[in-house]
Amino acid sequence: MTDRTSALLTDLYQLTMLQAYFDQGMNDIAVFEFFVRKMPEQRNFFVAAGLEQVVDFLENLAFTDEEIDWLAGCGRFHQRFVDSLATMRFTGSVQAMPEGTIFFPDEPILRVIAPIPQAQLAETRIINLLQFQTMVASKAVRMRLVAPQKLLVDFGLRRAHGAEAGLLSARASYIVGFDGTATVLAGMRWNIPLYGTMAHSFIQAHERETEAFEHFARSHPHASTLLIDTYDTEAAARNLIPLSRKLAREGVSIQGVRLDSGDLAEHGRRVRRILDAGGLNDARIFASSNLDEYKLKQLVDAGAPIDGFGVGTRMNTSADAPYLDCAYKLQEYAGLARRKRSEGKATWPGRKQVYRSHDANGQICGDILTTEDDIQPGMPLLVPVMEAGRRLAVVRPLESIREHALAGLSKLPEELRELAHAPPYSVIVSEKLRALAAAVDQRTDSALA
C-alpha cells in the first residue's frame, strides 16, 4: 500500500537548481550517496531503515497536472522548464544496504545513479525518509538490547511529530525487535502485531472502578489488560481478585494489568504479590510512562516483576539524539569523481562499497570503505535495489527485514551493545579511495588556479 508523495514536497533550491541544469543542458549521469557523518554521543552503531519508502517514492516520482499548473503560475520558473517537468520520471538505479543492516559513520547506505535532475530532485525526500527511520531504529534497538526477554510495544503515535512519523516509528521499531505497536494502521499495512489496553478516561467514565474493569473484560473476554493506576494502584489490584473469580466462572479471563505512573518497580512488586496471592499468577504486568532505554535498564537490573513495556515519546522522537548528522552528496558527475572539501564536512569521492569482516566467533570485527571496483576481504554490504527506475525484487516482507536486523544484532560485539559510549568500531578507508580523493583534489586545485 503506497501513499504518493507530492513532487513539490521538496526544498525550493532543488527546483531552482533543476531549472539551471535545464538551461545549461546538464543532464549527464550523477551519483549521489546518503551517509551519516558522525555518531551521536549516546550511540555506538546505526541500523539502516526506510529504504522501502525511498523505493516507493522513486518509482512514483511525477508531477501532477495541478502541480505543473501551480509551478507555471508561481512566477519563479519559465514555461519551457515547467513543461519539461510534466514528463519527468525516475529512470535511474539504486544500490543500498538492505534495511536492518548495522552501519557506521561515513559508510554510504544508499547510492542513486541517475541523470542529475532526477537524482537532485530526490534529495530532500530521501534524506527525510532515511534519516527518520534510521534514527528511530537506532534508538529503539537499544531498548531491545537492555530488555531482551521483555514484551516491547510502540506506544508513540499520539506524541510523534506528525502522522507519518508515528506510522513509520511503528515500522522502524518493529524492524529492530519490538514485538508490536498500538498504531492500528501499521497493523493493516505491514501486519505488525497490535497491542492495546485502555485509557484512564474509560475508568473515569464509570462510577465504580471495578465496574469499568468488568465491562471491559466482558467486551474483550480473551484480550483484557486493565489499567489499575487511575486512583489507588494496589487497591485496584486487590479488587481484581474477586472480580476475576466471578468472571472465570463465565469463561472470561483477565490477561494482565497496566501500570502508568509512580515508582513502577515498587508498584510492580506490590501488584505481583497481590495478584499471585489471589490466584492470578498468569496475569502479566505491563508498564508505560515516559520510558526509554535507561529507565528500562534500571527496571530490568532492579529485577522489577514487569513483563512488558509500552514505549512512546522518548523513542519516537529519539529524545536524546533527535536528528542524525546525515547527508546526500554528489560523488560523481559526467563520469568524473567529485568531492566536497568544506571544513568539517569533507566527503570521500566516487562510487563506494563497504566490506565487512567477521571474527572466528562470527562477530563483526571491522569494515573497509573503498571504491566500488576495489575488491576487499569480507562481505560487500551495498546491493542493487533498482534498475531503470524499477525495483529489482518484489516488496520485501517486513518479517524478512526484521530477521535480517536481528541476525545482525546477534553478531554485534558486546561493547557496542552497551548503552555507554564504546571505543569506535574499526572502519578503514582503503588506499585506493584515499588516492582517488587526492586525484580529485589535484584536478579541482588545477581548475581553481
UniProtKB/TrEMBL annotation:
Catalytic activity from the UniProt record: 5-phospho-alpha-D-ribose 1-diphosphate + nicotinate + ATP + H2O = nicotinate beta-D-ribonucleotide + ADP + phosphate + diphosphate
Domain of life: Bacteria
PTM notes: Transiently phosphorylated on a His residue during the reaction cycle. Phosphorylation strongly increases the affinity for substrates and increases the rate of nicotinate D-ribonucleotide production. Dephosphorylation regenerates the low-affinity form of the enzyme, leading to product release.
GO molecular function: glycosyltransferase activity; nicotinate phosphoribosyltransferase activity
Domain Nicotinate/nicotinamide phosphoribosyltransferase: residue ranges: 152-331
InterPro entries, A to Z: Aldolase_TIM, N/Namide_PRibTrfase, NAPRTase_C, NAPRTase_N, Nic_PRibTrfase-Fam, Nic_PRibTrfase_pncB, Nicotinate_pribotase-like_C
SUPFAM superfamilies the record matches: Nicotinate/Quinolinate PRTase C-terminal domain-like, Nicotinate/Quinolinate PRTase N-terminal domain-like
One protein family per Pfam: NAPRTase_N
Enzyme Commission code(s) on record: 6.3.4.21
Nicotinate phosphoribosyltransferase C-terminal domain residues: 380-436
Keywords: Glycosyltransferase, Ligase, Phosphoprotein, Pyridine nucleotide biosynthesis, Transferase
One Gene Ontology biological process: NAD+ biosynthetic process via the salvage pathway
Pathway: Cofactor biosynthesis; NAD(+) biosynthesis; nicotinate D-ribonucleotide from nicotinate: step 1/1
Residue ranges annotated for the Nicotinate phosphoribosyltransferase N-terminal domain, each copy included: 8-130
Top-level EC class as recorded in UniProt: ligase
Cellular component, GO, one term: cytosol
Family: Belongs to the NAPRTase family.
Role of this protein: Catalyzes the first step in the biosynthesis of NAD from nicotinic acid, the ATP-dependent synthesis of beta-nicotinate D-ribonucleotide from nicotinate and 5-phospho-D-ribose 1-phosphate.
Name of the protein: Nicotinate phosphoribosyltransferase
